[in-house]
Design brief:
Blueprint: E1 5-8, E2 11-15, H1 16-23, H2 27-35, E3 43-44, E4 50-53, H3 62-77, H4 92-104, H5 119-122, H6 127-134, H7 142-165
Length: 167
């Protein structure tokens, strides 16, 4: 008989079935979160099922992660860019939590101990974060090519704009 929850080295783990109920998603979605690497600390056991730390909160969707990672790219490549929190649907404190989650997954550098509004300006994408964005859309590779081009040209474009504006 399979157990839905176990304890390993004093830490509780649950199956995707249990965590799907906690998160309010289907078991398939919970498994996909694990397969896609969106659940820190999840692993497959000898029965080939995922075990998830019981204190893990629901992962962010791939779309939300992609938006936050693009925000990091904008902030790193355009230092004058400022986040207008009034226009965003997310509060700085929520964004800080998102960055901590992304750092746990290895998609961004650890945010450190800064005020919540400064964290987006302090982190940077890791190689894994860049690869995550590249693999999000367009199986033909067109988006990957566009992203690579943007990432390569951005520093030069910023220098050109600064020169043109006489800053």
């Amino acid at each position: 008989m399979r157990r839905d929850s176990i304890e390993i080295d004093g830490k509780g783990y649950a199956t995707t079935k249990v965590m799907a109920g906690v998160w309010g998603v289907s078991q398939r979605t919970a498994s996909r979160y694990c397969r896609d690497g969106l659940v820190a600390g999840a692993f497959k056991d000898s029965s080939n099922r995922y075990l998830i730390p019981v204190d893990t909160r629901k992962p962010l969707s791939r779309q939300v992660i992609e938006k936050v990672l693009w925000l990091v790219i904008q902030l790193k490549n355009a230092p004058a860019f400022r986040i207008d929190y009034a226009k965003m649907e997310i509060k700085p404190e929520q964004l800080a939590g998102a960055f901590e989650y992304l750092a746990d997954l290895g998609l961004v550098s650890p945010p450190g101990h800064y005020p919540a509004k400064e964290i987006p300006y302090r982190v940077s994408l890791t190689r894994k974060g860049v690869d995550f964005i590249r693999n999000q859309k367009d199986e033909s590779g067109t988006l990957k090519t566009v992203i690579d081009t943007i990432l390569q040209l951005m520093p030069s474009l910023i220098k050109l704009v600064i020169y043109a504006l006489g800053l």
